[in-house]
Amino acid sequence: YKTLHGITSRGFPNMFFTGFIQGGVSANTTAMFEQQARHIAYSLAEAQSRGATTVEPSDEGQNAWVATIRELAIDNSAFELSCTP
Question: What dihedral do alpha carbons 39, 3, 18, 31 form, nearest 10°?
Fold first, then answer.
């Protein structure tokens, strides 16, 4: 899957989501969701100020974000394999 900032994805105009997918992660889930909501609200306000009726990331923007995630992601597969379910 691909997203832009973990909140929107190409091919799904005007659809926004919150959670842990390709976005920031925090021990304080409420604060994380608040920051994501602020980011979504900013994106919508910016679109409205430009007269846009659709918000959807460009391929370039989405691919750049995915590249950033891949570059900075920590491989925690060993931890996940050893963690008791």
Answer: -50
Residue type, 8: T
**Cα separation of 18 and 20, whole Å?**
7
Q: Is the pLDDT of residue 23 over 80?
A: no
Coil, helix or strand at residue 4: strand
* pTM of the model as a whole: 0.79
DSSP 3-state helix, strand, coil percentages of the chain (rounded to 5)?
A: 50, 0, 50
As a whole number, mean pLDDT of residues 27-34 equals 90
**Residues in the chain, total:** 85
pLDDT at residue 4 is higher than 90: yes
Could you give the CA distance from residue 60 to residue 48 in angstroms, rounded to a whole number? Answer: 22
